[in-house]
Amino acid sequence: FGPLLPEFLGGSADLAPSNLTLWSGSKAINEDTAGNYIHYGVREFGMTAIANGIALHGGFLPYTSTFLMFVEYARNAVRMAALMKQRQVMVYTHDSIGLGEDGPTHQPVEQVASLRVTPNMSTWRPCDQVESAVAWKYGVERHDGPTALILSRQNLAQQDRTAEQLANIARGGYVLKECAGQPELIFIATGSEVELAVAAWDKLTAEGVKARVVSMPSTDAFDKQDAAYRESVLPKAVSARVAIEAGIADYWFKYVGLNGAIVGMTTFGESAPAEQLFEEFGFTVDNVVAKAKALL
């Protein structure tokens, strides 16, 4: 969509090859100010503050990018963007313990939750290319505040969808995998953990359990839906719910209730290969299935 948006102006805090924010139409701004890409250097706060100024000037759609962990360096400017309801797309990659060997100093745990609870901020953690495209569209079309896109380092499975499911992605949460009739159990997952929820759903379905998978890339967009839609996705009658996200666990009690289960983080990460870390912290099919069965 870049060629269709001449107002698109942004860059990365010295992480463009990792954030993948350099696109085919990017032209660096240097002595020639006719470009559209800013090499900010290692200055996350400065980058975000400059983007706020660009948004306040008007006429441009600014975007910024860095690792999610480094949102901490940009925190004040991020908060000001939300406070001023400025249109800005904030791209944060390397979003979890999936970062791997860089260790807990670089592995986000509480950052997604902190963005979600920031007033006027819309936060999206997509599970594949399709949800990512919808998240970008949401951020581009939004004019009443900033949008944070939370993206994973690792490759993710692409999910199959019907036309109705495609349309419902923009509603923030939707039924990705369904059973016949009323479900006994609901999985709620985001980002890289959606494929884990689908794998657990496959296993339980084969055992005769009636389960549903809800992909919830944006809790704030879902919360804005009417009560009828929210009830159709998360019916109150189904109290057996398991939330799965490689971020701080406590946030998800809002959706699973005090009697639900959460597969999430309760500590900082460790330094090890990503696959080993996911197993160590319980992000496995066997653990998710065990958590689910304990609720039935």
TrEMBL record:
GO molecular function terms attached to this record: metal ion binding; transketolase activity
PROSITE patterns hit by this protein: TRANSKETOLASE_2 (PS00802)
InterPro entries assigned to the protein according to its UniProt record, in alphabetical order: THDP-binding, Transketo_C/PFOR_II, Transketolase-like_C_2, Transketolase-like_Pyr-bd, Transketolase_BS, Transketolase_fam
Record keywords, A-Z: Magnesium, Metal-binding, Thiamine pyrophosphate, Transferase
Annotated ranges, domain Transketolase-like pyrimidine-binding: 1-158
Metal-binding is among the record's keywords: yes
Required cofactor names: thiamine diphosphate; Mg(2+)
A biological process from GO: pentose-phosphate shunt, non-oxidative branch
One Gene Ontology CC term in the entry: cytosol
Pfam families per the UniProt record, alphabetical: Transket_pyr (PF02779), Transketolase_C_1 (PF22613)
EC annotation from Swiss-Prot or TrEMBL: 2.2.1.1
PANTHER family per the UniProt record, alphabetical: TRANSKETOLASE, TRANSKETOLASE 1-RELATED
Assembly and oligomerization: Homodimer.
Family: Belongs to the transketolase family.
Name of the molecule in the record: transketolase
Organism of provenance: Raoultella ornithinolytica (Klebsiella ornithinolytica)
